[in-house]
Amino acid sequence: MPRVGLIVNDGKELAVETAYKIQSRLEKAGYQVIRVSSSGGMVGFANPDQHMRILGYNACVPEGFDSGMEFAIVLGGDGTVLSAARQTAPVKVPILTINTGHLGFLAEAYLDDLDTALEQVLSKEWTLEERTSLVVSVMRGEQRRWEALCLNEMALHREPLTSMCHFEVSIGRHAPVDISADGVILSTPTGSTAYSLSAGGPVISPECPVLQLTPIAPHSLASRALVFSDQEPVTVFPATPERLMMVVDGSAGCYVWPEDRVLIRRSEHPVKFVRLSDHEFFQVLRNKLGWGLPHVAKPDRQDI
């Protein structure tokens, strides 16, 4: 019997109600449905007084999920999709994202189109799009103290009510660079439309094999976003005496101490998205973020 996954944001009543309908439809079509909560991919923030999360990123894969699963349907908003990416990418399970949240930037389908989406996916009328993911590790010497998979970005920044921070960033074989700022963001092309965009970074088309480094409120006019090959591993050294906060995809993170370093590298496991139609990136930017809309001048008051 073919197997499919169902990843649900159990905190949203609409997502839970929709999950029952989808599960019934899939089981009638002859599929074994393995339903799990998206909370399994929410690593959370490590308590500095407790043992750090030394588990590898594979620890987020739910029981019963493996490479033999045909696909998984994700019900929730963009945060749920980010969690589901951690649960599925290591075992190469494609995900069909159905939005029950707000913006739905990462959504492939909406509830109004649910029946049509299910018909397409059951008849195998879909394609795959791969998105780059990152492995983010906090290292102390040769010891891995924390690790998680990342689809959008890693942000390393100061705590509230502390002064500006200094970072030494080493990108592959290139000479290290020094950045004075409130923090730094290391993002994928998918993450270029998230936190990095708010910090002044450029939008990057998903198929570009690059990463992006964006300073947060930099002290120097010379510190601007940098785009470089995703084949280059990145190491960030906190050159400041205070501890820093690291947040990955908005739902995972830990404190980073002066003796630590953050290692970011491209994962060998991209996130696989099920596409039911041509995923035209510029159109998504237009619909979701208003990019490229024509400017319309406001009328003069005398003309009203």
Short description:
By secondary structure, this protein is of the alpha+beta class.
Please outline the helices and strands.
Elements: E1 3-8, H1 13-28, E2 32-37, E3 44-45, E4 71-76, H2 78-88, E5 95-99, E6 109-110, H3 114-122, E7 127-131, E8 134-140, E9 143-150, E10 153-157, E11 165-171, E12 177-181, E13 183-187, H4 195-198, E14 210-216, E15 226-229, E16 234-238, E17 244-248, E18 252-256, E19 261-266, E20 271-275, H5 281-289
Parallel strand pairs: 1-2, 1-4, 3-18, 4-5, 5-6
Antiparallel strand pairs: 7-20, 8-9, 8-19, 10-13, 10-17, 11-12, 11-16, 13-14, 14-15, 16-19, 17-18
Helix-strand string: EHEEEHEEHEEEEEEEHEEEEEEEH
- Compute the gyration radius: what is it? 21 Å
- Give the strand tally: 20
Spatial strand order of the main sheet = 3-18-17-10-13-14-15
Distance between the termini: 67 Å
* Dominant shape: globular
Instruction: List low-pLDDT spans.
Output: none
Instruction: Kindly provide the name of the CATH class of the largest domain.
Output: Alpha Beta
What is the CATH topology descriptor of the largest domain? Rossmann fold
CATH architecture of the largest domain: 3-Layer(aba) Sandwich
Largest sheet: 7 strands, mixed
Helix content: 10-25%
- The CATH superfamily label of the largest domain reads Probable inorganic polyphosphate/atp-NAD kinase, domain 1
Beta-strand proportion: 25-35%
Structural class: alpha+beta
The structural domain count equals 2
Name the average pLDDT.
Answer: 91
